């Protein structure tokens, strides 16, 4: 049985952890709204997620289907998809292909031949103008149309039209330099999913930024622990004594509009004790706030952005197992920094590697504690951990709602410049409860 009934009663009181449906099968507790009571509570009464959410293989399997097969998932950089090249990516249980045709248009397909279902490609590779099945050599255009069926017509079939056997399409889209894919046709378009984020970050012109370096890491922790750790600055002083010199706790503000993301900002980035973040030239044309700030954005579910005036550090999270995540880290530089020497880039590179090493150490400890302790979840700190509350409510939505139409893209703060530029009061408890999910009672103004 995947769920500890006794523990569940201890946490959720009257909640029955496992239900037997009419077919006599066990239904996991997390498909029931009551599993999420601690998440659905208003911020000041909320708890973190149950340990099963981080450690239970059955939860992981359900999450792969409910989240990674329905959300807009970051699958790499837009620049990875080039004409003549095919990308192979995993989304939940599915394998997909991504191509770019000679007109620059992106296409996504399920990685399966329309003849007898063979996997078309195992890894990224150059394909020229044709996707070719290795089995009987059926060939498809970069748009997925079936173009070649060698020897197939030697004995004609009664009815056969190649037009009926194009590759099965998968939605793909880009924002800035990021490449996304989505397996569910009922999920809102990417721009709707991202809410006000594209507008909020338009001043950076992220379309033009270029990858300088990419590095992959395997982390022994659940993907959500890595994202949640990124979203809160509660741990900053103790886990990152050096980072906290350029990103002081007292310089953190909310940076949150509507959309499937959780944001915060450091305004201004401090340079008096360490100037690692200032060794590269800033992007051209940044406004007064963008030119002195760090924007830290976790796009649900799996991509984390640290956007500074002169570089972006991207972390893409690919869940492998409940306690194992592949993290792909990419440093992006604006046009103005494209020619920066290795020497000029080095402080930025090593800074993030050092910070990331500290984060990896603590999230792996978190995973070990959750796995071996499995105690009931504790309270979230309202000042620092409101983004986790928002994030965990997004997760709860996807885990409990069979129809994507019932998954609400959450509101954010008002659209004022204070909110948009992260120059509001610090901290801003009056707006912390602004996150409103339709199914929750409004908690009303909450600040002092
Ligand atoms: S399975 Fe692909 S060509 Fe036969
Ligand atoms: Fe951290």
Counting DSSP E segments of at least 2 residues, the number of strands comes to 19
Total DSSP helices: 13
- State the share of residues found in helices, binned by percent: 10-25%
C-alpha-based Rg, rounded: 23 Å
CATH level-four homologous superfamily name of the largest domain: Naphthalene 1,2-dioxygenase Alpha Subunit, Chain A, domain 1
Q: Specify the overall morphology.
A: globular
CATH class of the largest domain: Alpha Beta
Largest sheet: 7 strands, antiparallel
Low-confidence regions: 1-22, 426-448
Q: Provide the β-strand percentage band.
A: 15-25%
Cα end-to-end separation: 46 Å
Mean model confidence by pLDDT:
87
**CATH architecture designation of the largest domain:** Alpha-Beta Complex
Find the CATH topology of the largest domain. Naphthalene 1,2-dioxygenase Alpha Subunit, Chain A, domain 1
Structural class estimated from helices and strands:
alpha+beta
Strand order of the biggest β-sheet: 3-12-11-6-5-4-7
Q: Kindly give the count of domains.
A: 2
Your description of this structure?
By secondary structure, this protein is an alpha+beta fold. The protein folds into two domains: 73-175, Rieske Iron-sulfur Protein (3-layer Sandwich); 205-432, Naphthalene 1,2-dioxygenase Alpha Subunit, Chain A, domain 1 (Alpha-Beta Complex), CATH 3.90.380.10. The chain has 13 helices and 19 strands. The strands form four sheets. The protein has a seven-stranded antiparallel beta sheet with strand order 3-12-11-6-5-4-7, with no helix packed on it. Strands 13-19-18-17-16-15-14 form a seven-stranded antiparallel beta sheet. Helix 4 (57-68) crosses helix 11 and helix 7 (223-231) packs across helix 10 (342-373). The structure holds FE2/S2 (inorganic) cluster and fe (ii) ion.
